[in-house]
Structure formats: structure tokens, C-alpha cells
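Forum > Structural Biology > Help requests

Title: Can anyone predict the 3D structure of Signal recognition particle protein?

Hi all, first post here. I have the sequence for Signal recognition particle protein but no way to get a structure on my laptop. I'd be grateful if someone could post the C-alpha cells.
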Amino acid sequence: SLSDRLQDTFDKLRGKGKLTEDDINSAMREIRLALLEADVNYRVVRDFVAKTKEKCLDAEVLESLNPTQNVVRIVLEQLTELLGETESALELAPHRSPNVIMLVGLQGSGKTTAASKLAYLLKGKRKKPLLAACDTHRPAAADQLETLGAEVGVEVYRGDGKDAVRVARESVDVAREHGCDVVIVDTAGRLQIDEEMMQEAVDIKRAVDPDQILMVVDAMGGQDIVNVVSEFSARVDFDGVIMSKLDGDARGGGALSVRAVTGKPIKFASMGEKPDSLEVFNPDRMAKRILGMGDMYGIIEQAEKLSSEKDLADAERMLMQGFTMDDMLAQMRNIRKMGGVQKVLGMLPGMERAVQKQGATVDDSQMVAIEAMIHSMTKKERQDPTIIDGKRRRRIAQGSGHTPQEVNQLYKQWEQMEKMMGSVRGLINQGNTRKTAR
Ligand code: GDP
Ligand code: MG
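Reply #1:
Sure, ran it for you. C-alpha cells for Signal recognition particle protein below:
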């Protein structure tokens, strides 16, 4: 993946210590290839690499104490800039009721899913949304919206189910009658851009005069994302993008192009099929995810949702001071509590990679094994696993009913995570991250 490729590039630089111009040039070549392979638009890649290279070749960077860390910081900054720098809020007109949000995009991009998630998110902000089923082309479309609407407890207006423009117009009246303050208009898409779909979107837009038009873009789509988005931009125009399916393995290739090509902000990221998996898009976080720095803020936020002040304090200590075996165990338990192992693994620095490299995922039986091995360690060993030598390893293996090789594997996993935590820590200590963990 893009993350892996970039991390490999940085690993190579780290191995060198001092960096020469040649080192930077070859790193930039690798980054260029990695971005192109991740389907980032070639013009975007060209500009990105040129700018990043110029900054990295600065004498101050090359002669600094830790040049690689500075290169990583520069790439992070440039990626963040490419993604839009700051969060871009949903703008609704304060004195208009109902507000209207219209979703457009190709078929299968995730509009209907995003509509229900957006409704859920707005409900959480004490709004009363109404979903309007304006995809009248596929018979099952309104049913799908109704099912999703019921899941999040939001009313769905279907009208006659035939005339999309009319359903849209009526939904605004229905919202008023029912005291709803936001209408979310779900529209039809085609597999490819087609004239009829564009015209219908334009007609709906004219009929309901949306406060916001959001284009839903599938992050898994390749190079042609740019064409599709440009086409919509020219015909219906829109205010921002919802990047869907960012939980897949595309990891940002599309997201990296969209902003640069259209100048339109990415407002939300859809990270799964569950109702609560729509997040306000945060460029800094996304850039860190792409660089495999892990999303400590995401983890902390997740932890905040379900757990105590203590967990928050732990997260901060772990990041700033050191990462023990106990931390690793607690993390793994928490991951399971938070659900969606893969999702949270992706946020943890180095975790996903460490797990992938060993060709394994953390399943139930592994979890049991990990717990047994960590419990067989002494307190001292858990605090500072580097003291585990051959003799200790054999003892831990025996005590837990596992092999020394398994203990070693666990140690390697810990080592990898500790190393990753270390690099994030390094960045924060340098004062180069804008926010710090609370
Ligand atoms: P529409 O045709 O644009 O309305 O797309 P849908 O909302 O029906 O979504 C198409 C498919 O993608 C469905 O199977 C959804 O469950 C799935 N999907 C939508 N958003 C996401 C997402 O963020 N992550 C994942 N993994 N799947 C999604
Ligand atoms: Mg749909």
C-alpha cells in the first residue's frame, strides 16, 4: 500500500543517518512512484514531489541533527496541505428551515449510505433530519434508504417514487409539516456519467435550492475519480466532497487528488458501513494515517467515546514516555472492545504493518496466547521487555504453554510498535505537530 511504500522509503533514509542530495533525489523518486501507484493524479504527483523535494534539499534540513525526521515532517506537512489543511465544516444557513443538503455521485459511490450516516450525525447535533428518497430509477433504492433510515431513527419521504424532482420538492414541504430542520436529498447515480443523470441532478438542484451539495466519491475508484469529479463540478457544481470507503485499502490516493484538482474541500470521510462511521474529514489526521504514523488522536477519540479518563492518560503517557508490554496488552484488549479490529489497527502506529508483515491478524486464539505470554512475564519484564534474554524467554514460554519462538514473535511485535511510537514521539518532541495529545 501507499503507507507501506512511504514507510519503506523513510526506513531506508533512517538507515543512512546523514543525507546527501542523492539520497533525497532517490527518496523523492520512490515517493513519486508510490503516489502514482496509489492512483494519485499525475499532475498532482508532479507538483507535490517538486515542492517537497525543494524543501527537503534545503541545507538546514540536510545538515540538521536528524535529517530523516525533518524529511518526514516536510512530507507530512505537504500531504496535509494537499488534503486541505483545515477541517471544513458543513455550512448551513442559520435562518432557513429546513436546510437542504443534496448528495450527488455515481451509482455505488455510497450516497445512500452517506445520507443515512449524515442524518445520524445531524441527529447527534440535535437536528431533526428528513431523508428524501430521490433515487427513483432503481426500484430497491427507496427501500434501502428506508431500512437505513429506520436503523438511525430518521423518517424517510418516498413520495410517489417516480418523479425525482417532485419527490425532492415535496420533501421540503413534508419537512416543514413534520418540524424537520434538515432535508437530506439522496439522488440517483449511474455507473458512468450520463446526460440524463446530470440533467436530473440539475433539475433537483433548481427545485430545492440546496444549502449544500456534497459529492460522494468512492476512495477505491482509481484515476478516473478526477474526471468524474471535474464533470460534476462543471455540470451541477458542488460545495464539498464526502470521501467514502476510506476504510478500504485505497488509503487516500483519490482523496489526495480531489482537493488539488477541484479546489473543493473534503468535508466528511466515510469509514465503514456502520451509522457512526462518518467523520468530519481532518487533513492532518489523514496525512498521518497515510504516513503510517498512526492516528493517536483518532485512538484517543475512540477511547474517549467508551472509556475513562484513565485510558486517556494512559494513551498520552504511552506516546510520550514509553510503551510497555502491559500497554500492548491493554491496547489489544481495547481494540477488541472498540470493535472493528482492522479499523483500529490501522490507526495504531505500526500495528497494522507489524501484523501484516507476520502474515497474521489478531484473532481470538492469538489474543488468548498473547495474554498468557504477557501474564507469564515478571513485572520488570513487562516494563522493560528488552531484558528478555534466552533464559527468560524459555521460562516465559514454559509458563504460558507456548514456544520460545512465539514469545520471540510477541517481542518483535512489541519492538515494532515501540519503534513506531518512538518516531511519533520524536515528531511531537520536536514541536512539529500542531496539536498535542490531551
Ligand atoms: P449509492 O449507489 O451511491 O447510493 O451507494 P450505496 O450507499 O448504496 O453504497 C454502495 C455499497 O457500498 C453498499 O454495499 C454500501 O454498504 C457500501 N458502502 C458505502 N459506504 C461505505 C463505506 O464507507 N465503507 C464501506 N466499506 N462500504 C461502504
Ligand atoms: Mg443509492
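The domain at 296-429 is CATH 1.10.260.30 (434 Repressor (Amino-terminal Domain)). The first strand starts at residue 99 and ends at 104.
Shout if anything looks off.
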